Amino acid sequence: MRKRVIFSIIVAILIIIAVAIALTVVLTRRSSTIEQTTTTSTGSPDSTSLRTTTTTTTAIATTTSAGVLGSTSTGITTTTTTTTTTTTTTTTTTTSTSTSTTTTTTTTTTSTTTTTTTTTTTTTTTTTTTTTKLIFINNTNPKWTSEGYTFAGGNSYGQALNQLYYPRSIFIVDNDPQSIYIADTNNHRIVEWKYNASNGQVVAGGNGRGNRIDQLSDPTDVFVDQKNDSLIICDQGNRRIIRWFLQNQTDPQIIISNISCGGLAVDNNGDLYVSDYNKNEVRRWSIEDINSTIVAGGNGKGQELNQLNYPTRIFVDRDYSVYVSDAENYRVMKWIKDAEEGIIVAGSRGGGTSLDKMYMTNGVIVDHLDNVYVSDMANNRVIRWAKGSQEGSIIVGGNGSGNQSNQFIGPRGLSFDQQGNLFVVDMYNSRVQKFNIDIV
């Protein structure tokens, strides 16, 4: 009996040992499995991620507009803008690690803060305003058709919209060659006339002759200030220069008073030049200063090289030289910037009909080769004087006084369009004639 009890105890102990061994094996394997379950993943949104975003925006805009300022000057505005380039880089990194043992579980999470770097580069915007008309003719000896056709007026003189009354000057907008602006002098108005139109449109004045702010009196010259959408008018009878806004015609502004204006021009800086036929001088008004400076004449009436005698139309080139139609000296003078006297570039002392002389000069324009084109008013012709030449050559007219297509009666203002076609104000025929350039 005692032996049986001892045997049972031994068996029980063995069973307990076996169970303990089995449990130990199981627990050991489980611990090993858990230890091997530590997670490290790269490249997934839940563990480690690297994201780089780069955005680049570049825009370049260039705008060029060109417009004639008066029959002898133009406005060209060029604006170049290079906009901002922006680069943005974003980096995000996240790492997660989990470790578990039989009795303890530890979780560790490491996160890096998002870093954003932004670099911005912006260029400046430069605006250049050019107001001198550069007239480019395709060859050194161009020709024009001998017979012109009537672009505006030509229905005798009168005040109807299909008529002009002794016009003096014209202005052509380079970027709109299908219309011209006319100083319709004896109708006391400025008229816009479009290509092939039978009538003109009044854009300034037209309210009878007078000195009210909404009236003009014998306007003799005009150009368009495209930047301000306005006309600059030589209101000769009222002895003033007036700005007439095209969109708000009820609010004109007097720019200069007490001046006997014969002609207008504008230079590269936007400075205004005005000839004064009573004071026999040309003055420049700076856009930054209300004071004026004498740039030609100003030494009394006379025929010396430092004098003028009834200056009318003027032209300013890209070098700020001023060309003056010195009407009663029968010549055109060139005054280089800051010069004390001028140079005769067309005509001579004393009027006449030969090619080395002119009689009552008026309209004047200059091309890029420094050829000078002049309305020889009393000789009813337009003459070109090559640079350094002692005589001119007739390019249109010169066929006596008359109203035929190859004739004038008192030619005044001149202008070229972008193609080189010539426009002539035929004053006493109350019309504007166009002569097409003869392309060979």
Comma- or semicolon-separated keywords:
4-stranded antiparallel β-sheet, mainly beta, elongated, about 10% helix, about 450 residues, Neuraminidase, about 45% strand
What does the model show?
The protein has one helix at 2-35, and strands at residues 60-69, 73-82, 85-91, 94-100, 105-111, 115-121, 126-132, 143-144, 149-153, 169-172, 179-184, 189-194, 201-205, 219-225, 230-235, 240-245, 253-257, 261-266, 272-276, 281-285, 292-297, 311-316, 322-326, 331-335, 343-347, 361-366, 372-376, 381-385, 393-397, 411-416, 422-426, 431-435, 437-438. It has 440 residues and is mainly β. It has a domain at 134-438: TolB, C-terminal domain (Neuraminidase). The strands form 10 sheets. It has a 4-stranded antiparallel β-sheet with strand order 9-32-31-30, with no helix packed on it. It has a 4-stranded antiparallel β-sheet with strand order 10-11-12-13, with no helix packed on it. It has a 4-stranded antiparallel β-sheet with strand order 14-15-16-17, with no helix packed on it. Strand 31 and strand 32 (431-435) form a beta hairpin.
